[in-house]
Amino acid sequence: MKEVAAFLNSQGGTLLIGVDDDGKALGLAADYVSSDKIKDKDGFERHLRTVVGRELGQAVAASLKVSFVGLGGEEIC
To answer: H-helix or E-strand containing 70?
Structure first.
């Protein structure tokens, strides 16, 4: 949530989830299996919006643009 808040307090941008600090795609597979509620990208997005809504407010959660793309053979958000 620190990163999301930092984007909100600046001019925004793109936050990549599933990519390490060196730009290597790690993917979301570990996140998908971390909870029975997540399982796939739809569950991941629901979970992300729930956590953002709880921590930063529902208006912030609703304003997020969330997409999933392939990078280096991995699915990232």
So the answer is: strand 69-71
- Three-state SS across the chain? CHHHHHHHCCCCCCCCCCECCCCCECCCHHHHCCCCCCCCHHHHHHHHHHHHHHHHCHHHHHHCCCCCEEECCEEEC
Q: Residues 30-70: pLDDT tens digits?
A: 999 999 999 999 999 999 999 999 999 999 999 999 999 99
**70 within domain boundaries:** yes
Q: Considering the domain boundaries, does residue 69 fall inside one?
A: yes
